[in-house]
Design a protein that fits this description.
The structure is a homotetramer of 261-residue chains. The first copy, chain A, is built from four helices and 14 strands. Chain A has 261 residues and is an alpha+beta fold. Chain A has two domains: 97 residues, Immunoglobulin-like, CATH 2.60.40; 132 residues, C8orf32 fold (Roll), CATH 3.10.620. The longest helix of chain A is centred in the middle third of the chain and has 14 residues. Chain A is globular, with a radius of gyration of 18 Å. The N and C termini of chain A lie close together (11 Å). Chains in contact: A-B, A-C, B-D, C-D.
Chain lengths: 261, 261, 261, 261
């Protein structure tokens, strides 16, 4: 599947405002970026760097006035996400070093508080993929997916209390439950083909059977059409924009995902 | 000042238990490790790796029975920590890339919730070192340092509610307040000469005037004699031991810090 | 200056052949990639990774038959390269850690053999930028720039003996001479606007006055219009394609650099 | 086997001289450092960093006068190096990213010039470990191991011409031959128990069957007792000391390796 994504953001800036953006998809084992555009208006010096998780991040200072970011990409991605029922739990001692940090609790995934709940939800399951599949089913049945229900990320504890949340919030609870079982898990932000309503999206991955698998509790079945922008421990690591100083919110914000013509 | 530190841990293990340890001090700009010992009994295969924050971590699987770790080091460190009143706030755009992740909220430092409190505590202060000094003074006056008061880390929000905590908890609140002002801050674990009662210790550092400065709200004045074991966003990153599976606690745990003979 | 670059390569492949490519420009402090295309025909799984020098590399296995790579980009770059006459030599002890490896001899830059020659060429020069400017002038006057004169990289010693070479070879000698004076130096591959004859290009950078400066002994004066694809110690690190197994050479190879419309 | 190593270096310094040292063994999958000492006289500020290859390096400026470095360690290492006859060649596309740079030619390993010779020496061998074993046997039979025969490293081409060299030189030729067959290979410096005459030692590793194997053409059979100080592409990367400015050589240099009492 070749998808054409676009994300346009427009801000009204009142004083020089530093931004860190994460809007450049990166080719990896899961996707190939065939075309990409990234325009900033007015033209502004930008520095790009790679963060601890391998994401490409763009730093700049927006000057007062209208400030807009316009990105677009053509990405080759899979029609169907891989499923791996039966893929085994990897013992801590056999995990790659680089995966270990995804076992630790983080800002929005207080995995240290979910030991009992994680065990209860996955009772009787084969260790590994089937446990995470059980967590995902549980989320679908018990936490309502309410796009637009809040702006600030909810932590796993908060989502569990409220019983609803946006895609990112459901991912937080899924990740916390995985980590409580010593399964490394990370958040992913990006785009999803046919998402309703269309917007940026977030889901999670769990490390099982020596690879990362995709899970998304907001979708009934598991089609493909995912385009990754970034990975992290939770939403704190993968804001598509982090802005410093007095808050500014996009006055326009438009996301599109279509099949490439 | 040349300090001789030691940390001995003894566990009773009931089933094979993976551990990740962070007990090897590393030489850097702040300290020089002249001698070091690290013994594990019974002898066990250990793999060492470097985490995202530059810490040396040791992975192993403890087998059932008594399991003990005995570490010791001679470290050259400063008699007095550097103070830097007047050292300026560094604008986000001028921070080194590697420092940026210390601006983000983390598991135990919900900096996103402290904007108003951070501003209030530092009102009228020169931006930079003086703000962090004001935060540290505020912690000394308002949060009671109660060694041994709890085992599990408290997050900044929790410490702020309870008004007391162990060294690590005070550091969490200090870090969250710094980050709320866009000052990068990180936790440090290690040893402190003359700490009362003697134990592992935790404090924090803030990035000001293009370098890291040490702050410790648990000590009235600011002597030196600090030995660093590791750095991280908060306690989740710098557990001196992370253990996976059914919990085991040290049956013995002895820390000593003396001047080298 | 907004440049539109393209590089098209076509190979005839006789057996499955692993490639590592370095054809994706990366945004950094020197350039901003506004648009980029990277097409591989026939469609082939590609894995992208970052090497030790921060370059984006693409791995794939070309299957028998015609195999073509077509890349294109719009890059915002400077009209004029920065000059820094008087910029000072940085003492080894003050160099950033990440720069130190560019002091060591490497495959094609046997800097350990150029101590006397480096000293002679730069005699009487202010230490730093002026030394490297003197080296570059010396190269212009003494080594003939002969595009297309050889396919295999020449090492600094070989170039110095033959007194001619392609852009890459002149860069090797310049780098070796810089390193012989303890000035960190690295090769850069990419594109140059108005290069005659048009092709991929190589030049070098030296670290002086706390930053990297661009030097190009193949050009009389120093216009801008450089687009960077990758950095490395020498040509061994920055092949735009490394191919393994029986040698295959492009049957077609077309490079274009124009101003963006 | 528990080995006690020591290396003492003494220099007479005439002007402030920057050094980069690589004298701290690091625990890894192959060895465990139980005790370590690292003393510098007179006391001098030292900064430690990790290089591109994962080695711990120490930077300092030696002041005029006598300058001595005294290091010692107790290391648990294997009695016998692993042999892996039959371990398979790993196709380029299946190599970990971090291993790829060990396929490239480097300062002293001009692997690009050894394609025919590498093929000839390994003719008829099973691809993988057996090829490297054949290379090592060939080195033992054809290149004389002459400790102390030269101070400056010889490149693979030079060793092949002279037909003799020190340990490091034999390793260079071994590495170049491996890389000519697309087998990743790296130099290792450290200590060897019972080496005759005792001194620092160098050998090489090749990546086969998804792990690194040890090869040492200077020893008839392959006992164990190796202690690793550092890894690199060749001797340019792993000097136990790199010194900048007018050359200084150790006036004293004493290496010992014994079994721990």
């Amino acid at each position: 599947m070749r998808l054409r994504t676009s994300c346009d953001l427009k801000f009204e800036i009142f004083e020089p405002t530093p931004f860190i953006l994460m809007l450049r998809p990166r080719s990896g084992s899961q996707q190939w970026v065939e075309r990409e555009e990234y325009k900033i208006t007015p033209s502004t010096p930008v520095f790009e760097f790679t963060d601890n998780y391998g994401n490409l991040c763009q730093r700049l200072i927006a000057q007062p006035g209208m400030f807009s970011i316009s990105t677009s990409s053509d990405v080759v991605t899979s029609n169907f996400i891989d499923q791996g029922f039966g893929a085994p739990f990897i013992e801590i001692q056999n995990l790659p070093d680089a995966v270990l940090s995804y076992l630790l609790p983080s800002r929005y995934c207080e995995s240290d508080c979910f030991n009992e709940m994680g065990a209860a939800i996955t009772e009787g399951q084969l260790m590994g993929y089937n446990q995470v599949a059980a967590i995902t089913s549980w989320l679908r049945e018990n936490i309502e997916y309410l796009p637009g229900s809040n702006n600030e990320p909810l932590s796993a504890i908060q989502v569990n209390n409220r019983q609803f949340g946006v895609c990112r919030d459901l991912a937080h609870l899924g990740i916390a439950l995985c980590r409580s079982l010593s399964i490394p898990a990370r958040i992913v932000v990006g785009y999803l083909y046919n998402l309703e309503p269309m917007d940026m999206h977030a889901w999670f991955e769990a490390y099982i059977g020596n690879r990362w698998y995709t899970f998304d509790a907001t979708q009934i079945d598991s089609p493909g059409g995912y385009v990754v922008l970034g990975f992290g421990r939770d939403a704190a690591d993968v804001a598509i924009f982090n802005q410093f100083g007095p808050s500014v919110f996009p006055v326009e914000h438009l996301v599109k995902v279509k099949e490439c013509p």
